[in-house]
Design a protein that fits this description.
The protein contains 8 helices and 10 strands. The protein is α/β, with parallel strands linked by helices. It has a 5-stranded parallel sheet with strand order 5-4-3-10-9. Helix 4 links the parallel strand 7 and strand 8. It starts with a strand and ends in a 26-residue tail after the last helix.
């Protein structure tokens, strides 16, 4: 598979993963190895320097790129503060902006996300904002300096798949930066669909971490992402309303007077 590039940083895998739902942190490293994922998200509150057993950084291999998220932020100001703390803690320049005010559906606040993206991009962060799919928001995030845009497929942790497909397709028609589907992907076929659509990558957390075998599920998602990307690059055949014979021999099934 061709390289996936974010602000000049090259990756072989187009599958981003998360740490948030693992009941056994010891499975994080083998999942990463099985899936080939090179970028993993984590909440700043899970970095516990006083208790090594609780510090998520101790379970992530050193060669993996960290993508801290601003989980818990309700405003752009709070998200910027969390991002700066993450950088100071040694987590690097990548940051996933996650600003949520809605406690029922956990929908991101697009307006505040644009504000935070502008501030952090100007400070040299590699910003990946998580948003409700919206064409205008995507364009404004690009203008603000986002390294990619991360539209949700469906509500966080819902495993409902890509119910926002038509909205994401609009973004794909005009995007200038990578589109990474985040949230709601519940099974490998959802990830394959996102890649077939032309998305550049997917982020999967719950579907892998809460599977009975997270390591094997990580591998399954890796294969799905690769298959979907290859299908997209191969330019899939168009759907048709009516049947179309796959072989000219089909014509022999009709009598001469019916042709």
């Amino acid at each position: 598979m061709e390289k996936f590039i974010l602000k000049g940083h090259e990756f072989q895998s187009r599958l981003l993963t998360g740490t948030g739902k693992f009941s056994d942190k010891n499975l994080v490293a083998p999942m990463l190895e099985a899936s080939g994922s090179q970028i993993i998200t984590m909440a700043l509150r899970r970095i516990n320097f006083q208790n090594p057993k609780e510090n998520i950084l101790n379970y992530i291999p050193k060669h993996i790129t960290l993508l801290p998220n601003t989980s818990g932020a309700r405003t752009a100001e709070e998200a910027v503060k969390i991002a700066r703390i993450a950088r100071e803690a040694g987590c690097g320049d990548f940051i996933k902006i996650e600003i949520i005010n809605d406690s029922k559906y956990l929908m991101p606040d697009n307006a505040e996300t644009i504000k935070a993206t502008k501030i952090l991009a100007d400070e040299g962060f590699i910003v990946l904002p998580y948003v409700i799919p919206d064409l205008i928001t995507a364009k404004r995030l690009e203008d603000a300096g986002a390294a990619a845009v991360m539209p949700l497929g469906s509500p966080i942790g819902s495993n409902r798949g890509i119910i926002t497909k038509p909205l994401i397709e609009m973004m794909l028609e005009t995007n200038r930066v990578p589109i990474i589907v985040d949230a709601g992907i519940g099974k490998p076929s959802d990830a394959a669909l996102a890649m077939e659509m032309g998305c550049d990558a997917v982020l999967v957390n719950t579907a892998i971490a809460t599977a009975q075998d997270p390591v094997r599920m990580g591998r399954a998602f890796s294969l799905a992402v690769e298959a979907g990307r290859e299908a997209y690059l191969a330019k899939m055949a168009e759907e048709k309303k009516y049947a179309s014979a796959s072989s000219p021999l089909t014509g022999f099934l009709f009598r001469g007077d019916e042709k």
